[in-house]
Design goal:
The structure holds two protein chains of two kinds. Chain A is mainly alpha-helical. Chain A contains nine helices and no strands. Chain A has two domains: about 80 residues, RNA polymerase sigma factor, region 2, helix turn helix motif (Rna Polymerase Sigma Factor, Chain: A); about 70 residues, Arc Repressor Mutant, subunit A (Orthogonal Bundle). Chain B has five helices and no strands. In chain B, helix 3 crosses helix 4. The N and C termini of chain B lie far apart (about 65 Å). Classes of the chains: A mainly alpha, B mainly alpha. At the A-B interface, helix 2, helix 3, helix 5, helix 7 and helix 9 of A face helix 1, helix 2, helix 4 and helix 5 of B.
Chain lengths: ~200, ~90
Amino acid sequence: MNKNETSLVEGLRSGRTKAFHLAVTRYSASMLATARAIAGHANADDIVQDVWLTVFERIDSFEGRSSLKTWLQRIVANRAISYLRSRPPEVSRPGVEEDQSASDWFDASGSWILPPPVWHEDSPYALLAAEDLQDCIDKHLLDMPDSQRNVLVLRDIQQMNFAEICNELSLSASNARVLLHRGRMRLMKMVNHFEETGSC
Amino acid sequence: MLTCQEVTAKASLMVDGELGFRERIAVRIHLMMCVNCRRFARQFQALVSSMASRNRLAAETIVPEFVDGVMQSIYRARESSSIPPGRDGE
Ligand SMILES: [Zn+2]
């Protein structure tokens, strides 16, 4: 923790309104991004609001072993995951485990059968600006098996490091890497499909 | 010599900077010679980077109403909790 954060945590511990306002303003956006990615847009606000109440009540359990941001992200991820598990079965969408090996792209010698499709947008900025595409990514994130999505969200959206992710999700490093690569390949296939057909 | 399939299988290690020295050279040589894998690698990198920017983009668009809503619920929780008043002094 840096000095700035230490004094913020002290403020939270002593229940100062100012400290809470600062923390809520500073950290809510990335918490919302995590909650949205895991549990969907409709539920993210409630989840994050709920997490802040927990933080208000249990800031004493923050031991400062990770950064405050990481600690908050963990609580949000946990809360979003347990929210998903608590949904009634008819609403819940169990992730579909698809073949992510991409072996259908290659011939027996391991060469491309067809060249990978050219994307209309292939810069990160252009990809982000394509709203339909981003909606499609949201949809596919929700369709992923939880384990795949959680690794992908924590790593690629939240930029957490591997040690933290493995710790948080109780995964081995090699397992986490496999899940991450599968998740990314799944999104690659999705974008390929989107670029070729114009639909999700 | 790596095959195209092997190169795509290493794509995540590549963008995460986790390839060993020899692997990194082998991938680089393949990419120099293979237009298909070069395209794939560029798209893969762009997709992964765009995911990171989702978070940064979200960070710029936090709505004050959301912050207010959270603060209101914290005030309510404080009122109904045993936390004594007067802890707000700086
Ligand atoms: Zn190749």
